[in-house]
DNA sequence: GTCTATACTCTGATAGAC
DNA sequence: GTCTATCAGAGTATAGAC
């Protein structure tokens, strides 16, 4: 993969990655083909492989980029802030990701669902470390009596599950709700109520 | 696919379906190969195709079987029961599915994640109808003041998301918790608390 | 009913002209 | 840098012996 130096290289790399995100997130790694990605990108298949050495490399580039986006909302939770507000803001940020980056959410879900074959290290390392850190903060908040006592890790899991559900299971959510709904807008109110009640001792 | 008449046909069909569930749930439809399924089943590849006409047919057989298993816990929610107990029992049944049938959960997740290409009709039909029916029951419970007012469909989504997360994202959950945990046992307590607080007005 | 051998298609990747 | 042509391997499915 040539380091993107010229403007055209920069642009093509981005075009490829965007097309790859579209296809990988919809079909998984194995289900996606270079032909599809090339078609979406508007480039020839050999041209893809001029910018990236292999299909695997394209996928890896996406995952690496993804991890930061994915962890940012939790990183931004301020240990010195007001506990309830911090947690609700975290929920809102995660929900924003489901709204604005549903393809990234599905890429991530595909990867975990299949046993995280290409992300195991990041999950056991970076992700776990961040959760440990923030779980400690939440535990302190609970000991100070500022929010209700709960298992902080399962609390975090619940936020992941409830927010990502609206991106990952979008088809099902829309099918069940029928026409004329904005699932994520509705979810925002629902989750606000849920966490307000849950965190009140 | 020969209707399983003899005992050996019955047995082989089941062996194949079990092997297929193992492989499809771990790798998705495209990611799974007949070679893998044959290997797990301990049969030859052509022998698989003696029992089922195609890879697609094996997958379809699994999905059809799956839907009933999947909807049963919600079907069993009794409109005449005690509201809080009925909903908590539903949560527990769904969590039992995540514990006892994680492969089925991942098969379902893979299918929805990729836009439900082979299940759309069932989701828009059977699934939606059941949710509509039970949402009406919940709405009545709310109007009678027996549980807190909430959007009943998002309440159901929350139960799906929170329980299936422990099967679908098992790798991540275990990586974050580290050794010496029983994720689903812990989740049971957490979710009991969550829904007790949520349903209390 | 089950196997070996094989046909045929798809797909990731490369060669080489321009 | 981009394209056409093509290779090699994998994968679904079938033919036909036993």
Structure description:
Two copies of one chain form a homodimer. The first copy, chain A, has helices at 7-31, 34-41, 45-51, 55-75, 83-100, 102-113, 120-143, 152-168, 170-177, 183-199. The mean pLDDT of chain A is 96. Chain A is built from ten helices and no strands. Chain A has two domains: 1-53, Arc Repressor Mutant, subunit A (Orthogonal Bundle), CATH 1.10.10.60; 62-199, Tetracycline Repressor, domain 2. In chain A, helix 1 crosses helix 4, helix 5 packs parallel to helix 8 (152-168) and helix 6 (102-113) packs across helix 8 (152-168). By secondary structure, the first copy, chain A, is mainly α. The longest helix of chain A has 25 residues, at 7-31. Chain A is globular, with a radius of gyration of 19 Å. At the A-B interface, helix 1, helix 6, helix 7, helix 8 and helix 9 of A face helix 1, helix 6, helix 7, helix 8 and helix 9 of B. The first copy, chain A, binds a DNA duplex (18 and 18 nucleotides) through residues 8-9, 12, 33-35, 43-47, 49-50, 53-55.
CATH domain class name of the largest domain in chain A = Mainly Alpha
Largest sheet of chain A: none
H/E element string of chain A? HHHHHHHHHH
What is the count of DSSP helices of chain A, taking H or I runs of 4+ residues? 10
Number of structural domains of chain A: 2
Anisotropy-based shape of chain A: globular
On the 0 to 100 scale, the average pLDDT of chain A is: 96
For the CA atoms, what is the radius of gyration of chain A?
19 Å
Secondary-structure-derived class of chain A: mainly alpha
If classified by CATH, what would the architecture of the largest domain in chain A be? Orthogonal Bundle
Low-confidence stretches of chain A: none
Proportion in β-strands of chain A: under 5%
Q: What is CATH's topology name of the largest domain in chain A?
A: Tetracycline Repressor, domain 2
Termini Cα gap of chain A? 54 Å
Helix percent band of chain A:
over 70%
Strand segment count of chain A: 0
**Assembly state (oligomeric):** homodimer
Could you state the CATH homologous superfamily of the largest domain in chain A?
A: Tetracycline Repressor, domain 2
Biggest interface and its residues per chain?
A-B, 53 and 53 residues
